[in-house]
Design goal:
Strand content: 25-35%
Low-confidence stretches: 133-141
Number of domains: 1
Distance between the termini: 30 Å
Largest sheet: 4 strands, mixed
Oligomer: single chain
Mean pLDDT: 88
Structural class: alpha+beta
Number of strands: 7
Order of helices and strands: EHEHEEHEEEH
């Protein structure tokens, strides 16, 4: 069975996370439920792993929090998007947290629609045997 592996990591302190990550988690759950329905008839499973980012890892690189990886690659790569940063909340402290810029919009919360779009691109690349979205091996020319 073909599998779509989705890994999400976020800062979690004493069971609490920031509103940005909490909302992204809800969007991720919504996206995975939809993806499971769509991919099941095609024999494709969806595996969601939620990882806790330690305070130490967060202090070293706060942009690792609220990161989503599909089949090992960041969501931003699948969408040809970029990551950025903006101030967050008390849980995260004075550091800026991850944002995603896609199609001219900046997202603090990653919406289900972007996750689903990236998932379709990841599955398409996997089924075609290409793991390098955007490179010449994936082009039809």
């Amino acid at each position: 069975m073909e599998m779509l592996h989705i890994r999400w990591q976020r800062l979690l302190i004493d069971g609490a996370t920031c509103p940005r990550c909490a909302s992204t988690e809800e969007e991720l759950e919504r996206a995975c439920a939809l993806l499971e329905q769509v991919f099941a008839p095609l024999g494709i499973g969806v595996v969601l792993e939620k990882e806790i980012l330690s305070c130490e890892a967060f202090r070293k690189d706060p942009l690792q929090s609220n990161a989503i990886f599909l089949n090992g690659r960041p969501l931003e790569e699948w969408l040809e998007a970029s990551r950025g940063a903006s101030p967050c909340c008390d849980v995260c402290g004075p550091v800026a947290c991850r944002t995603v810029e896609a199609d001219g919009r900046v997202y603090e919360v990653i919406p289900a629609e972007l996750i689903v779009k990236a998932a379709f691109l990841a599955v398409s690349a996997s089924l075609s045997g290409c793991s390098h979205h955007g490179s010449s091996c994936c082009s039809l020319g």
